Amino acid sequence: MSTLTGSALPRQIADAYVDDLLELDPILGTYLGAPGSGRRLPDFSPAGADALAALARTTLDRLTEAEARPGARGDAERRCARLLRERLTAELAIHAADEQLRAVSNMGSPAHAIREVFTLMPTGTPEDYADIAARLREIPAALEGYRASLTEGLARALPAGPQQVATVIEQITEWIGDGGSGSWFAALTADGPRERRAELDAAGAEATAAYTALRDWFRDTYAPAVAGAPDTVGRERYARWARLWNGTDLDLDEAYAYGWSEFHRLRAEMVAEAGKILPDATPWEVLKHLDAHGQAVEGVEEVRDWLQGLMDEAIAALDGTHFELAERVRRVESRIAPPGGAAAPYYTGPSEDFSRPGRTWLPTMGRTRFPLFDLVSTWYHEGVPGHHLQLAQWAHVAEDLSRYQATVGMVSANAEGWALYAERLMDELGFLTDPERRLGYLDAQMMRANRIIVDIGMHLELEIPADSPFHPGERWTPALAREFFGMHSGRPSDFVDSELVRYLGMPAQAIGYKLGERAWLTGRAAARAAHGDAFDAKAWHMAALSLGSLGLDDLVAEISAL
């Protein structure tokens, strides 16, 4: 444990927690660019989870003492203390419910975290490749710890959902390829220096063998053991996850009703916009037409370049007018995601010193043609002014906040809400006047409204309202959710399939987009009402983005007062 003086304040407690956490979670260390983390992997066994929980409890005890000190009364200390207490309390509730003993999902499991961290490791020197080889050799033990946790979950009658298991088996099968030179790990090390060739080949083979063993265990032992278990989690488990992802205790029935109100509003807007492209066609007929005949980029490298250009153009247009960006925040890279993951694009933030920039990642899913109607708004979300401007700004002002507020303490709904707000902002600013791109934006908004409806609906088995155009009066099931989502989305079927598996495996995460956007809009409206004609949107944006992470209730309170 980090040593602290008897006068330590909440921000010091929070940063000491980060230091201690990095010892337990070197994957996090790689994301932050922390020295010395690149050769190790976390302990994913039950003992490893218990160590994380013990650290959280000790930190909460330290925080209670720190909050009683006179210097803790300022706004900066108060915000940090409130965030740290809320986050650690929510995480301990998840641990107490033994959720780590059934952590199987198509994008958020230890198996995914282990593989994905290699995409962020530097590869510029032979020493970098020595770190990669060392970490590859850690994979067998890390996966064995993960398997021990799942085995303990089975012993306690805590199964993961069968659909998650089936999907992960498919994903690992793609990662390992033929088990030799065709594996993802062999490709990872293929460009390594000649003097490290034998070491890298051997380490890659060890990693591939370990994942092969995990795949076989999932297929032969775990999948039969969880057959027949529910894929949904029920209200009690769902409420715990909702607190973790949203940073507040939600009224789930109110949130469900809000999702439906947004569905009806957006549906009307989509009908109007679709009529500009194909009169008398439904929005989803128009989107299908655009998928085949609309504006598109041909080629994987070409789309990567195009997305880079889109973000560069957005920075040039917004900096100095609607934002005030530091030079290092202006740098963001477009990347193609490694195969074998979920279908949704994603963003990884910069290292703390910005030596590794923020990056957006596009999964190609085997495609070589990329329609633009659903890419433009998505890259405003993932890149600029979405995730990149928020998370890079947090890193930029970390010394004024705390390391914890800028990194580890991120509340998903805060960040996803900002990114969805960013999409709406670009529409408000006139960047989406082209009917194809604006219909794509509305479809993206509709997808987030649909997430609230089906995520809450199927996990809680709620009734479909009487005014719904889809199965009114019936209760949600995963099968109905898949049908509804497919009917009201312009995304291809493989994307929709991946999304539904995601919602089942990460309950309540997907509802934070729309609920978070609502929080950002509520706060902006309150600040604008308070200032009247003197409201300065650029100043408000930068002040709000410099607060660091907050749960949704705290977010509304803080940004309303700016």
TrEMBL record:
Cross-referenced InterPro entries, in alphabetical order? DUF885
- Sorted alphabetically, which Pfam families does this protein's record hold? DUF885
Q: Which PANTHER family does the entry link to?
A: DUF885 DOMAIN-CONTAINING PROTEIN (PTHR33361:SF2), GLR0591 PROTEIN (PTHR33361)
**The protein, known as:** DUF885 domain-containing protein
User: What is the species listed in this Swiss-Prot or TrEMBL entry?
Assistant: Streptomyces polygonati
The uppermost taxa in this organism's lineage are:
Bacteria, Bacillati, Actinomycetota, Actinomycetes, Kitasatosporales
